[in-house]
Every structure is written in structure tokens, then in C-alpha cells.
Amino acid sequence: MTLWNDIVLGISFILLVFLVWKEVRRPDRRWLAARVLASGLAVIALAGLGLSEAGRAPKTVGRQRSGGATGPADSDGGIVSIDWTRKLVKGDRLRVEGRWLEKTKPGQDGRKTKLVLTGMGGVLDSMEIQGEGREFSLSAIPAVIGRTNYHFIVLAGSDTLEREEIPVEVVEGKPLNILFLASSPDFENSFLINWLSKGGHGIASRTRVSREKYDKAYVRLPALALETLTPSLLDRFDLVITDAAELSLLGAGERSVLRGKVREGMGLIVKTDSTEVGRAPNSDGRRRSDGDTGVSLDGAGKVMYTSVDTTYSQVLSGKERLYAAYWSRVLGKMAREAAPEETWRMEPELPRVGEPVRVVLQTDRGGLPQGDIGGRAVYLAQDAQLPFFWQGAFWPEAEGWQIARSLQGDSCWWYVWPKGGWVNLYGKRGADGSTESGLVPEAGQGARRQIGAYGPAGPLFYAVFLLCVLFLWVERKWKG
């Protein structure tokens, strides 16, 4: 039980004792039992309202990530966990990962099951699994910009066991300003600059011709003084791409400026030979890896050491799509990240029609934000401890893509599934067609909240409290 629950129950008990004591001490003994009952019910209703606002503990513990969820532990089988990234930048790979569970009898291996990811009129990826419980991973690179629904299908022979929508939004990504520093001309830089210019990025290039002479070029940027790296110059760029030879030729002051801007959030890619890959030390001499070979975190920025310097060969061999996918992923990972002024989160992240959704808005904008979801106003309450968080409740009426926006900010797209969607993740279906939810959203710093923090019990508590208070008020007025 949380500290908040202890406080609510403690205050409620003290209040109940006080109110009953006041009623018992009244000289008028008429309606005593009714007055005591009404006082008790009013306190219970108040306690229920207090507890319903807290992060209540669910019946089963699951975990949601960006577009994913884990179902109840007592599931009879099917998709019991699922995860994918809802919003991708062009060129990013869509990965649908999770776990398929099929309960088998002792000594049986279970039937063969085929998992298929489809989209754009064809099969994008598939795999076969067999056994009681198996992890799966399917992937594809989306070919279109915008909102698309892929399908995740589970087959056993000619039978379709499950079929669910996998909604994905693919965006172009913001144009970047990129600075190239090269010790000599090379094909890799030439092809990359040409590809980046077609994508609308701003480019400044400095190629060393001799010790103090450079060849400079600009795309979508004005002519800049590139001879010396200064803080004001690097403030204009999201990413610097250089080679190890040029990096070693920089003066101590320039290297210090470059490292300082990386620590503030700018990205740095260093092309080198294979013996240097992964050597991206921080200012304190230690290295912190974010999980990718050759990539290190340095303050708020990232440094990538790579020996891959012939990606242009993919363009020459007609594999432009692979080339674009690789560099789109690298740029998205390494470029300076701008913090959004506001972000939306829906809990659960696999919402269904007619079921409560907790709406959370994180914003740095001032004023009193009001949400607009699917054309309906949703009023948001400010968090008492985190003033930049606002939250409310919403019951979606239609399935499909929905838009959420505040009156002051940008829009955000999210998806609503039909009432019978993700049945294995939500729990067992009852006789009336309803399900007992096993999904538990992950909120913020690992805090877990039950589906629909403002569930149907809230209005009931309000009604009981108002009726009891009304009775006590009328009884006193009638007596007077």
C-alpha cells in the first residue's frame, strides 16, 4: 500500500470517529441510526475518491512500452506481449517484437504457428515458431510517408488465430544543418552530401587542400567562416562529420570547442579505420555506450566512430533504398535533439472503443491547456507535484486514427482499436462480451497505473457522498 493510501485511510478514520461522536452526543435521538449511517457512507465515499486519484495497484502486473503491452499472467494463450515504435522517421526500420504463448499438455511440443507481418498489399516478414512460449521479432522498412496500418497475423495451417492492426506513423524528419570536415577529398563525402542536399538538409563542407588552405562548399546555407571552429559557428549545426586524420590536425582549442558543443547536445561522427571503432572517450576519459558499437554518450551529445566509409557503393550498385535507410537511421540517432514544447501520452497505449483512456499532456507552455481529442473537448487538471503535467479522461467512441491537440500547441496522432482488439492482452472475455483488463500502462518513472485512472467508480462515489451530505443537511434544517 502506498503512502498516499495510508494518509487517505488515516484521515478518513479520524473523520469518521469525529462525525459519529458528534451525532451520538446530539440531544435529539431521532434518526440517530440514519445519521450515523449517512456520516459513515459519506466518509467512505470521500476515501474512495481519494484512493481513485492515486496510482492504484492492478490485479496483474504488466508493462507497456512505446506502442506495446504485456497481458495477464493467467492468459490461456495467444499474443501475451507486443511492442513496436509508433512513430518512425523515414528510413527507420519497424520492429514488431513480443511473445506468443500456447499452453500444451505435458509431453507435447505444440503445433507449428506462423507469424506474418503484412502491409502495402504483401507479406513484409514472417517466421515460424513451435512450443509453449516463444519470443518473436518481425521487421520491415516502411515505404511511405504518413499514417499506415500494417497487420500482424497468426496462422496455424489454414486457420487464422489472431489478426491485429499495427498502426505506424512515418515522418520526414526535420532538416538538419551538417558540417563536414575532411582531411582530403573522398567519394563517401561527395555521395553523402549529394544525398543530403536532395533531402533538404543544409550543408557546409571544409576539405583540407594544404596545411592552411581549404576547399569550401555550401548547400542551403550562406557562406560561413569555416577556417576556425568557434562556439558561434558550431551553434549553427546539429551534426559534424569528420575523419580521424582531420580530427588529429585540429588545434587543442578547436578540439576543446568541438568537445564542448558535443557535450551540449551536438552529434559527432568520426570516420576511421577498424582499430579505432568504439574509441569515443568522454571528457573524464571514460566511455559510456548506448548499446550500438562505436557510439558513446558524451554529456548531452553522442559520438560515433565508424569504419564504414564505402556506403556509396550501394548507390553505384542500384541499392539506393538501403543507402537511404542506413543514413536516415544514423542521422536520426546522432543529430542534436530538440526538446518538444509539449508531448501527449495515452494510457493504456492500446486503447479500445468505449473504454476509459487516461490523457496526459506534458507542456512547457503557460496558461491553462485544454485538450481537443477527436473533435471533443477534454479538460485537463494540473498535477499537484509536477506542474508541467496535465491529465484528464476520455472515452473514445470510434476506432481508428484519432488526433489530439491543445489549444496552444501542435497535434498528435494516436490509434484506437475496436472493442474486441487484443483480447489476450486485456484478459479473459466474460459472458457479456466484456474483458477483465490485464494491461497496465507504464507511466513516467516506472510508476504503474490501472487502466482508466478515472474509472466508473468515481461518479458513484460522488453520488453517494452528495446524497449523504444532502440527507444530513435536510435533517438538520427540518429539525430547526
Distance between the termini: 44 Å
% residues in beta strands:
25-35%
Low-confidence stretches are: 55-66, 276-292, 428-455
Strand order of the largest sheet: 12-11-10-13-14-17-16-15
What average pLDDT do the residues reach? 79
- How many H/I helices? 10
Helix content: 25-40%
CATH topology group of the largest domain: Rossmann fold
Please, how many domains?
3
C-alpha Rg (nearest Å): 30 Å
Query: What class do helices, strands and sheet pairing give?
Result: alpha+beta
Descriptive account of the structure:
This protein has 480 residues and is α+β, with helices and mostly antiparallel strands. It folds into three domains: 3-56 and 458-479, no CATH class; 177-334, Rossmann fold; 342-452, Immunoglobulin-like (Sandwich), CATH 2.60.40.10. It has ten helices and 27 strands. It has helices spanning 3-25, 32-53, 187-198, 231-234, 244-249, 252-263, 312-316, 320-334, 423-426, 457-479; strands at residues 69-70, 77-83, 87-89, 94-102, 112-119, 122-130, 133-140, 146-156, 159-171, 177-182, 202-208, 214-219, 239-243, 267-271, 288-289, 295-298, 301-306, 342-347, 357-363, 370-373, 376-379, 381-382, 389-394, 400-406, 411-416, 442-443, 447-448. An eight-stranded mixed sheet has the order 12-11-10-13-14-17-16-15, sandwiched between helices. The chain has a five-stranded mixed sheet with strand order 3-9-8-5-6. Strands 1-2-4-7 form a four-stranded antiparallel sheet, with no helix packed on it. The model is unreliable at 55-66, 276-292 and 428-455 (pLDDT under 50).
